[in-house]
Amino acid sequence: MKFAVIVFPGSNCDHDAYHAVKHVLGEDAELIWHKDRSLRGADAVILPGGFAHGDYLRTGAIARFSPIMQEVKAFAAAGGPVLGICNGFQILLEAGLLPGAMLRNRGLHFRCEHVHVRVEHTDTPFTAAAAPRQILRIPIAHGEGNYYAEPEVIERLERNRQVIFRYVTASGEETEAANPNGSIHNIAGITNETRNVVGLMPHPERACEPAVGSADGLVVFQSVVKALTLAPAAVSAAASVLEK
Amino acid sequence: MTEPITEAVLERHGLTREEYQRILDIMGRTPTITELGIFSVMWSEHCSYKSSRVHLKTLPTTGPRVLQGPGENAGAVDIGDGLAAVFKIESHNHPSFIEPYQGAATGVGGIIRDIFTMGARPIALLDSLRFGSLDDPLVRRTMAGVVAGIAGYGNSIGIPTVGGEIAFDESYTGNPLVNVFCLGISRADEIIKGTASGVGNPVYYVGAKTGRDGIHGATMASAEFDEKSAEKRPAVQVGDPFMEKLLLEACLEVMKTGALVGIQDMGAAGLTCSTCEMGARGNAGVEIDVALVPQRETGMTPYEIMLSESQERMLLVVKKGREAEVERIFEKWDLHAVRIGEVTADNRLRVKDRGVVVADIPNRALTDEAPVYRRPTAEPAYLAQARVLDLEELGSPAAARDVFQRVLASPTVASKRWVYRQYDHMVRTNTLVLPGMGAGVVRVKGTTRALAMSTDGNGRFVYLDPYRGAQLAVAEAARNVACAGAQPIGATDCLNFANPQRPEIMWQFAEAVRGMGDACRALGIPITGGNVSLYNETDGKGVLPTPVLGVVGLLENAERVVRRTFRAAGDVVILLGENRGELGGSEYLKVMHGLIRGKAPALDLTREAALQELLVSGAAEGLIRSAHDCAEGGLAVTLAECCFDTSLGVDANVPGVAAAAGWRDVATLFGESASRVVISVSPEHADRVLAMAAAKAVPAARIGTVGGDRIRVSVDGERVLDEPLAASEHIWSTAIEAYFERRRAVA
User: Fold this and answer.
1) Which of B158, B334, B425 minimises the CB distance to A50?
2) Distance of alpha carbon B6 from alpha carbon B672, whole angstroms
């Protein structure tokens, strides 16, 4: 199977995501420039972290207008798996593929450190290989990861089981201290209603090899392989939309 | 262009009467104001190294691994597999005091450009910072701004800040030091130089537009500060990391085409420096028309355009006939490459304004033939008294436990987590040793190797003995790299001193360079480039003389990397090196008595080299499970730091040193003798490691065992420290944060 990693001007985790899926996971991968108009037959799309367009104006606010985003939207609408990591998550929010918005971190500082997140649900293409309520130790690196949405949106997300990752302590408790940025309900990642688009602030691609401190993030990418092997229909549907 | 050149004009340009006479001799006529401006920035201390050059020439710069020594944008060493490590350190002290955020941010931007200009992809940053006392609100503001500026630039451009160090002393209050080190990787045979050659080859300008910011930045960095320094704020540039990210990617892509002859960034002295230096290196001339330079303000004069230090700009010489290829790549990145001139045969820098010549100067007059001064030196008067340390005069020392707690809370010793947590230190997924865990170590993807790097420089030791202090800086940086298991293979230096026109400062400088050179020769580490920052003084008060050494080491097997922290209960703790209880210039004296006194620690470079060899071979064989250098705070702090972040305690018993009555414990535990490292090894390897040490004549003693939840240290069998690990760690890990959280609570 093949991953597309979108490169926006200012993306800086594009090579890391590529390395994780291509060299660690061993699947095919291709970097795709934001001005391109084709996903080149990819089976899954990753919007990587970084500072697309310098995060000027607002994180993700300019990137959503990139030509490739039309393709990403069509791919998502057809059920194709789309993962937004950090800045990629912010772009998904701006593009309307996921609900809510990001505020400055509660402490006002950029924070880079390992945190613990709990996998809340395994019925998405990016958590299918995880154990229910598995705790992952993966890094965060962001200044604006304080997830916010209107109370009714939060209520809907919770009711529909759309909160996919939550900040917890090492032993899995959902505490204030475990929340690095002030996100509502300790939300670290969410999915859309059709559960094929997932955004998260932590960086699973930075935690795919024990040598760099943790390999807990690899399960996110392994999940795609598992999900697509089990349900290839969704993929071919998405791909056929893109062939047009 | 007709402004007469008066005394006032010369003074504004920082040129002496004698220097102006030399300009007249070179030109054979009165220079235009644009020419005068060009001379003034190129002959500034910052660009010409006129006070330091005679000394820097004595440094060892060659070695079997050296691919590029000083003189280019950065140095380069061979790291095997056909790859080169390209690295350099540079200061941005003056701008960071005037405008902390932008000053630091543009410092990061500048050194990154130096690295990718060589054709290398930057993969790691380190920062060596010095500030005044954190009790001072101005210092907290400066430090918060500097840290945010480093984070703002480095995080955005996506280069991890993997390490560095921070020390505090009142002398840095009005003159913080912001030294930024960057390392990149390139193919060894694809290093690109800042050279202009090939008559008729087009000269391109690419990047941000030129504005009036930063005019005379290099001149500002070549003068002291006074109460009017805040008025110099317009001479600080504003950074745009996004623009630089585009430049970085686009330039690396252009370099791959082979269409480039040379490239240089426009840093200090902007367009002036890049044009004349590229011409001088290529033994050619460069002719440009400033009217073609993209400008973001209207009505800019040739003078302003040539002297602007607007950030994120590059100058390229392209092979004639391949222009379209290059332009296409920049367009892909939404950058506009503009042809502003061409290479000529006459070795001159010729500047035109809409075709009219406004400056025409021989390149070499601006570069190699700039003034060189052998400034007078004199041993400072303070030394005789400062070197005397009579412990008995200080009365009896506090209990070891009180000293331990005070020293752990000292910002120089305490955890820098509050700082490095604001830096993205993991992007690019190469970081093998996280900040705070030892030297910065990044793997080199596609190989089995890793690179370790450390920046060090103890201003107190240099103040007490510039020669030995500089040697200690070299030794410490190399030792830190060796602790990680890496063989030191190259160094870069950033020399931060006060006003060189004062003979005692020049003496400090000359002695420090001599010490650095001797230490690098003894340890076999070539210096491949660096930076000098003089005039670090405000209202006549200079900073502690602070040479900062950045040493790069090569780890053949990345899997064998060694960190600071203990690994397993039951492991044997070994002290390598000799404890001589030297308290001169120590953190103890500073924290407990407010003194910088005594003799800098002794250093035997032969023993130091043997120690480092032992560390590297022990790591390569997988025998050393943790290694941590004894530095500020001495053995007690080192043992504690080996425990922090592990939840493993230690039980140690060390032989007491000979000391004045009542001073045994303090001298043993808080003395800062050099060439000491605390390692831990599994019990079955202990004898083997001790035998290896003996074979290399490295003093080594089994001093304790890892385990428990306390830090227990005895001297001559007598328990003098018995602290709960968690409480000690709390002091150490929250000390710096507390200064800033307290501030927020008040605000």
Assistant:
1) B158
2) 55
The total number of structural domains in chain A stands at: 1
Q: Do A15 and B430 touch (CB under 8 A)?
A: no
The predicted complex's ipTM stands at 0.94
What is residue B372's three-state secondary structure? coil
CA distance A51 to A91: 10
Of residues B490, B446, B440, B528, the one with CA closest to residue B165 = B440
C-alpha–C-alpha distance, residues B461 and B472, integer Å: 8
Distance from CA of B422 to the nearest CA of A (A): 5
SS3 B487: strand
Q: Tokens representing B333?
A: 């990145």
CB atoms A56 and B245 under 8 Å = no
A with B: how many residue pairs have Cβ under 8 Å apart? 89
Looking at CA atoms only, how far is residue B156 from chain A in angstroms?
A: 6
Contact B378/B504 with Cβ under 8 angstroms? Answer: yes
* Smallest Cα distance from B18 to chain A, Å: 48
Catalytic residue chosen out of the listed positions A13, A86, A94, A116: A86
Q: Give the domain extent around A87.
A: 2-243
By C-alpha distance, the chain B residue nearest A110 is B422
A205 part of the active site: yes
Which residue in B242, B421, B443 is closest to A112 by CB distance?
A: B421
pLDDT digits (tens, 9 = 90+) for B332-370: 999 989 999 999 999 999 999 999 999 999 999 999 889
- Model pTM above 0.90: yes
Total residues belonging to chain B: 747
Instruction: Tell me the sheet residues that pair with B585.
Output: none
| C-beta separation of A88 from A47 below 8 A | yes
pLDDT at position B747 is 40
3-class DSSP state of A18: helix
Q: Are B248 and B112 in contact (CB under 8 A)?
A: yes
Residue A109 contacts B where some CB pair is shorter than 8 Å:
yes
Per-residue pLDDT, averaged over B97-104, amounts to 94
CATH code of A205's domain: 3.40.50.880
